[in-house]
Automatic annotation (TrEMBL):
This is Glutathione S-transferase. Residues 321-332 have a biased composition (Basic and acidic residues). PANTHER family: GLUTATHIONE S-TRANSFERASE OMEGA-LIKE 1-RELATED (PTHR32419:SF6), GLUTATHIONYL-HYDROQUINONE REDUCTASE (PTHR32419). Residues 309-332 are annotated as: Disordered. It comes from the Bacteria. InterPro entries: Glutathione-S-Trfase_C-like, Glutathione-S-Trfase_C_sf, Glutathione_S-Trfase, Glutathione_S-Trfase_N, GST_Omega-like_C, GST_Omega/GSH, Thioredoxin-like_sf. Residues 172-296 form the GST C-terminal domain. PROSITE patterns: GST_CTER.
Length: 332
């Protein structure tokens, strides 16, 4: 793993020395927005109109942030409008690679380049920063629209509605304030919380992260006892953002990242909720536990130096979820 410095690749692991053993996620670089007519979005430049076949998504099936974008592509009927390339699950000294010797790793379907970093330097030859997935690429302007998953899912939520006719809304105006509050806690203590626990290099940093994580899982368990989804009876982006961490929890975060006060399957409401979301039309195809297991255990040499991929749990994600009863209860 490494980063680009003025367009040149430098190998190296995350620096936690300067932050007292804490893992701190850096901010993303490309922040343009696709809009229905190419008008300026919240940040970046204008000129990225929604068009079928114009944009391409680079993902890792292992990555929870990229996973969000794959889910929104499926939920919003964008499969025939936005192509996908999936990297190899091993992220080693060259960063994400387009090798194809793993089932589901497609290679770079646009340019046949060897590394994801080549996509970044194609967009900007002097770029500095981390080379992360997801990346949303614009074939017309030959550049990166965005590499921020939270914003890509909001583009997918509405920008292409005129093309697909799919008007399902996971970011409804009347719930936005509440969603932002819930997202903030889940991002900090759950989505990123598992990484803060797993990448901590001091006991104090680990203790703090893991205790905030399990406080939040207790809070979510209580919330989902009386609410079918985080916002009640309506599924929103907050649920999909939480789902990509929950679906990885017992497979990698519990063992590999030492988030082992409890397993997900020990929380009846969170576990039923995870199964319901997994069984949502189009979602199961976006979940690749083989990529997830391989990526984390094989790529993080500092945590797992022998790169042994454990046998892993094999929970029945297709078992009846029983969540319809929660809706009935809260509606009654
Ligand atoms: N803010 C980004 C974070 C994406 C991210 O951190 N992706 C990880 C994979 S799970 C990655 O590509 N890491 C490579 C690196 O940090 O060098 C987003 O949500 O889109």
């Amino acid at each position: 793993m490494g980063r680009l410095q003025n367009g040149a690749w430098q190998d190296g692991w995350y620096d936690t020395k300067s932050t007292g053993g804490k893992f701190e996620r850096t901010t993303t670089t490309f922040r343009n927005w696709i809009t229905p007519d190419g008008a300026l979005g919240s940040t970046g430049d204008d000129g990225f109109p929604a068009e079928s076949g114009r944009y391409h998504l680079y993902v890792s099936y292992a990555c929870p942030w990229a996973h969000r974008t794959l889910i929104f592509r499926a939920l919003k009927g964008l499969d025939n409008h936005i192509g996908v390339s999936a990297v190899h699950p091993d992220m080693l000294s060259d960063g994400w690679e387009f090798r194809t010797d793993f089932d589901g790793a497609t290679g770079d379907r646009l340019f046949d380049l060897p590394h994801l970093r080549d996509i970044y330097t194609r967009a900007d030859p002097n770029i500095s920063g981390r080379v992360t997935v997801p990346v949303l690429w614009d074939k017309t302007r030959d550049t990166i629209v965005s590499n921020e998953s939270a914003e890509i899912i909001r583009m997918f939520n509405s920008a292409f509605d005129g093309i697909t006719g799919n008007r399902d809304d996971y970011w409804p105006g009347e719930l936005r304030n509440e969603i932002e509050g819930v997202n903030a806690r889940i991002y900090d203590t759950v989505n990123n919380g598992v990484y803060k626990a797993g990448f901590a290099t001091t006991q104090e940093a680990y203790d703090e992260a893991v205790s905030e994580l399990f406080d939040s899982l207790d809070w979510l368990e209580a919330r989902l006892a009386d609410n079918r989804y985080l916002m009640g009876d309506r599924i929103t982006e907050a649920d999909w953002r939480l789902f990509t961490t929950l679906i990885r929890f017992d497979a990698v975060y519990h063992g590999h990242f030492k988030c082992n006060r409890a397993k997900l399957i020990e929380y009846p409401h969170l576990w039923g909720y995870t199964r319901e979301l997994y069984q949502w039309p189009g979602v199961a195809q976006t979940v690749r536990l083989d990529h997830i297991m391989r990526h984390y255990h094989y790529s993080h040499e500092t945590i797992n130096p022998h790169r042994i991929v454990p046998i892993g749990p094999d929970p029945d994600l297709t078992a009846p979820h029983g969540r319809d009863e929660v809706s009935t209860r809260s509606a009654a």
